[in-house]
Amino acid sequence: MTSTSTVTLADGPYTARLLAPGHHPAQGDATGGDAPELIWDDNRWLRFTARTDLHETHCLQVLEGERPVALATLLLTRRPGGLLFYDAPRLAGTASPMAEPELLDPAEREHWDRLTAALPADRAGHYPSLALATFGNHHGVSHARGRSPQQRRAVMAALPALVRQAATQLGCSSAALLYVGEPEADAVDTAADRVGYRAALLGADAVHELTADSWEQYVAGLSSRRRRGLRKEVAEYERGGFRTVATGGPAALDDTVIDLQVAHREKYGLPGGLDRVRRDFDALREEIGESCVVLGAVREGRMLGFALYLRAGDALFLRTVGFAPEAAGCYLALTYHETSRWALENGIRRIHYGLATYEAKFQRGCRLQPRWGWFAFQEPGAEAYREVLDLQSRSIERRLERVGAPAPPLTSRTSPSSPMPYGAAR
């Protein structure tokens, strides 16, 4: 199936082709070549996401005239049970790293409890659901080479209306654009508010910029407090008998890593099990294995913990971690300090750690870059979802304020507005 929808902006019309499930055109000139390299823009990553059995993936190809100017990944969730971070109906009102109701004041918390108790547990009336996003907590939009920042923002501003049209064509009852940051967020927010979405702060991507030329220079450049913390955590790691072993390429995703990942998912109640994890890692190995880097915490010849990264140019992107019970206490040393040491020795200048655990990341030198989402729900119940999203956003705003990295507010979060229900005409 191929369909076309059009939205007209001030600087001219954009046409979007909604491609059949699993059809991902060769990026050609629709790639993020001029921006810092992001693994989430890589066409190999799109092929990996297409192999999930929890979502149906589509590509939205955006054209200006006859020229493709962007590719966007759409994740269609047909029924409850998809991956939480990309399942818009479940994201709204589910206490998780993207909703921390304990940070609300008593009256707000009471309202949160009342609203969430009234929402159907399975959110069944809001499926199928369509989200613009890609795994890795990124919006997954790649732009054509040579596009200016202003042109990129214009395309991003076209996407809220295009996604709504795509959702209608696919028979979806809800839609969302997820994990958009600056400099695009303000442009998306204005356009999304105009066509009936509700904005919510979802969190922040933690990015560690490495400006030193060596590990010794890096350590010497830290504040005395951070230097003491680093030396303490590394010393405990080494006293525990651990050393770090790096493995790259497809062979890095072996049975040991798979078993540790299964145990990790079981510990934190994540969807998994051996069969699912093996399918996930097989797809990673086959589609993007050459970019995999596994840093393992090894003791007496046994890997007891790992951090899996994907490398793109001079950047690492944390994909997942896993630790055996015997490796308790290894997480901080391996994921931050040992990773920074390996990165500096191997030409890496930037490490993306993703969302959540903000205090630990901020204290270890990460810059927190806010990530926003916009949601549109149909009646009945749309107003309850909007109120829940307001409270959810407020809780994450407070989390980042407490960490010391407040998120600049979006216009729609600071001015009175009454977004229309999903599907209503304007």
Written account of the structure:
The model is unreliable at 28-36 and 417-426 (pLDDT under 50). β12, α10 (331-345) and β13 (350-354) form a beta-alpha-beta unit. Strands 1, 2, 3, 4, 5, 6, 7, 8, 9, 10, 11, 12, 13 and 14 form a 14-stranded mixed beta sheet that branches. The chain has helices at 43-50, 88-91, 106-118, 149-169, 185-194, 215-220, 224-239, 255-267, 274-288, 331-345, 358-363, 382-403, 411-414, and strands spanning 3-9, 12-18, 56-64, 67-77, 129-132, 141-143, 174-180, 198-209, 243-248, 292-299, 302-312, 315-323, 350-354, 367-377. The protein is an alpha+beta fold and 426 residues long. The longest helix has 22 residues, at 382-403.
Helix fraction bin: 25-40%
Unreliable sequence segments: 28-36, 417-426
Going by helix content, strand content and strand pairing, the class is alpha+beta
Distance between termini?
29 Å
| C-alpha-based Rg, rounded | 22 Å
Work out the helix count: 13
**Strand content of the residues, in percent?**
25-35%
Q: Give helix and strand order, one letter per element, not per position.
A: EEHEEHHEEHEHEHHEHHEEEHEHEHH
Biggest sheet, in brief? Answer: 14 strands, mixed
Morphology call: globular
Mean pLDDT across all residues, rounded? 89
